[in-house]
Amino acid sequence: MLVPFSFSALLALYVLPNLVSARTGPARVWSHGVTKRATLFAPLSYSAGQISDGVAGNASAEAQAVCTQPFADIDLSTVSQTDMDNLETFREAAETAETAQFDPQIDAASGTAADSLQVGKIKNKVLKLTCEVQQLQSKQAQGSDVTSDLATEQKKLDTNIKTDQASAGQASTGVVSA
What pLDDT was estimated at residue 22? Predict the structure, then answer.
């Protein structure tokens, strides 16, 4: 038995899902008509976002899930200062982990423990540099001339991704629990 639908109901079933999926990012419309984009990159602790535990070989995808996925499908020229600040704070935490935690722990370790920490440090570098490249791409989209910095950081990122991929399957140890 066919259920009769009005033309309006059929139109709503077809159009509304397409309108919802066509939006460019989370947004809120306030009662006075001003639209404000929701935070894309919420504050994130290093321990919650670090990728160094596990195995090597997939650091690029893991770092993208943390640092670039929140900005997918949006116009980078619309990234808020709050999102940029949150991303910078997380990037700085990854850099601090590298110098204040990985380096001393690698120096104090030996054998497979040192090797595993070194692999974790490379994954951490991929994370840090992925965040840096994301920031620079957003700044460039907003009109800043960061072409030289972007090329430099992208080259560093590519080098560390290759190092991670060359270590694929090796144990990787982080400096904090996930």
Answer: 35
